[in-house]
Structures are given as structure tokens and as C-alpha cells.
Amino acid sequence: MTDEQLLRYSRHILLDELGVEGQQRLLQSHALVIGAGGLGSPVALFLGSAGVGRITLVDADTVDLTNLQRQLAHNLARVGQPKVLSAAAGIAAINPEPEVRALQQRAGAALLDEWVPQADVVLDCSDNFATRHLVNAACVRHGRPLVSGAALGFDGQLSVYDTRRADSPCYACLFPPDPGFEEQRCATLGVFAPLVGIIGSMQAAEALKLMSGMDSQLPGRLLVLDARRMEWNEIRLQPDPACACCREHRGPTQ
Hints:
It is a single chain. This protein is of the alpha/beta class and about 250 residues long. The protein has one domain: NAD(P)-binding Rossmann-like Domain (Rossmann fold, 3-Layer(aba) Sandwich). It is built from 10 helices and 8 strands. Strands 3-2-1-4-5-6-7-8 form an 8-stranded mixed sheet, sandwiched between helices. A hairpin with a 4-residue loop joins strand 7 (about 220-225) and strand 8 (about 230-235). Helix 4 runs parallel beside helix 5 and helix 4 (about 40-50) runs parallel beside helix 10 (about 195-210). The chain is globular, with a radius of gyration of 17 Å.
């Protein structure tokens, strides 16, 4: 690391769990972020400020005035711009070092099969059930850890799915695909602005731990937040032996 990097990342380097080696791993890591909205905003900014060397942002949308209530990577001057370019500009304003690739595309199967194998960790910051299942399936196929968050209304959830471990379920073990599922969106139900910041920041924290070599303690645990009462609940998870998505891709027990 350069002298400037040692100064910029000094508060990480002072942590025994990270140190110079952990920070160096972050500088050499690649994070794939699906979604540059409410959850993707804090994720992108924290990964960038922490010095993750490569960040790939995937989102097909543009910045809208209604986004600014909660999507803090964007601002009024960037309304109408692609969210991925706006988020990349937000990262660069804090830290110009990360190599940020902005893909203004939907996260389809072909795109995911191209980019998931190149990433050290994948963060699902999307806002719909179909995309979450596509991202999960790609992470299972290519053996990459998935940091998954969701937020709607006053309710949030967070987990890490890592089928490199035999004791970790995948997203589909917990939420099986359902063609009849009726999607709920914040455009109709609303979302409490700080909620996406809380969940997105925690996604970034888990991803940074994974990339730095600290590992994550969340596989097999689902954290659920009721922001009305600011109350957390934890659900213990087990792999579903009948899961069509991950049963053939599971790794050894750790």
C-alpha cells in the first residue's frame, strides 16, 4: 500500500481483525452489486469508501425524484441519469481509487453467468422476487457467497447464503420460487427511508468481512428487523435437501 492508502484506511488497519493484510485483501477484491437503489446506495458507498478494488454495479433504472427520499448515492443534479453512473459518481466523490464498472442492464441469467464468476462476493440489492432467484441460482452455480437484503415498509431482512458450506441454505431453500407470487413494491406500499440504510449498511459489513478474510457468521441465520419497534429477530435456517436449486452444489460442512 502507498502512504496515502495507509492514511486513508488507517482506521481499518488499526483493527486487529483486519490490519494491513485484511485491507490489502479488500484492495484486491471484486464485489458485484445487483441494484443501485435504496439498498445499493449504502452498499456502493461503503464498499467504495472501504477501498474494495473493483465494484461492478448492475441496474437498468434511472434516477427519479421519488428515489431521493432514501437512495443516498444519488442527488438532485443527477435526476434522469442512469443509477449505476450516478452511484459510480457518488463513490468517486468519496474515493477515486476503486475501479467501478457501471452496467445499465437488467440482471438476467446471461449477465449473471458472465459476472458472478468474476466476483469474490455478490450483493443482492434488488427489489423483486424474480431477480433475487436469478441471482441466487447464479451464485449457487458458480460457488460465490451471496449477501441478500430486503426492505419494504418498516420491515427488513438480511442473510448470507453460501452453498460452499454444506450447512448453509440458499435463498431458494427459504423462499422457494412461486409463479403465483404477488410482488409488493415500495411504489405502492412505501418504505421508511432509514430502513434501507440500516439493511444496506449491514450488507456492506458482511461483504467486507467476507472479502477481508474475516468470514461471515450469518450463513444459516436470517435477521429480521421491525423498524417500528426497532426490534430484531433471528430465524435459524437449514438447507432444504429437496431444493432443486442447490442440492447438487453443496460443499463440505465447516
